[in-house]
Amino acid sequence: MRISLIEEGAEAEDIARLTGYLREELLQLDVDDVTAVPGKELPPGARAAGITEIGEILVALGGSVNALSQVVTVMRAWLGRSHDSNPSLRLEIDGDAIEVSKATDEQVTDAFRIFVEQHSGAGARQ
Questions:
Q1: pTM of the model
Q2: What confidence category does residue 122 fall into, taking pLDDT thresholds of 50, 70 and 90?
Q3: How much of the chain exceeds pLDDT 70, in percent?
């Protein structure tokens, strides 16, 4: 699973710090590995103007049937604590992606629930 953290107008250091905090939380879960990918600039022509950096994390879910659900729970809580900075989170599994940005808690919960249901058999994939 690939997790991308995006925040409009953020500095590279801020994205690295936020990505590091999220990575630390994810390492506490029943996952095989959580690897931070070095920050990169948004490609020219990408749809989100004003974004300077994207933080990415690769999560190896392993064989745990609950790992995806645990990751989503951490991400939902992390987003809830980050209302001041309004980051966007993008999850991708096997080319299927969901991006959550500027949504109500209920919308975030529903979107993540649907994503988990669609990928409940994706436990060993990255």
A1: 0.78
A2: very low
A3: 79
Please state at what angle helix 105-118 crosses helix 67-81, rounded to 10 degrees. Answer: 160
Q: Given phi > 0 = left and psi -120 to 50 = alpha, else beta, which region is 45?
A: left
The radius of gyration of the chain's CA atoms, rounded to the nearest angstrom, is: 14
Structure token pair of residue 76 = 């939902």
pLDDT 10s digits, 5-45: 888 777 778 888 888 888 999 999 989 999 988 755 555 54
Alpha carbon distance 111, 106 (integer Å): 9
Written in H, E and C, the secondary structure of the chain is CEEEEEEECCCHHHHHHHHHHHHHHHHCCCCCEEEEEEEECCCCCCCCCCEEEEEEEEEECCCCCCHHHHHHHHHHHHHHHCCCCCCEEEEEECCEEEEECCCCHHHHHHHHHHHHHHCCCCCCCC
Tokens describing residue 111: 């979107």
The amino acid occupying position 22 is: L
Q: What is the pLDDT of residue 83?
A: 61
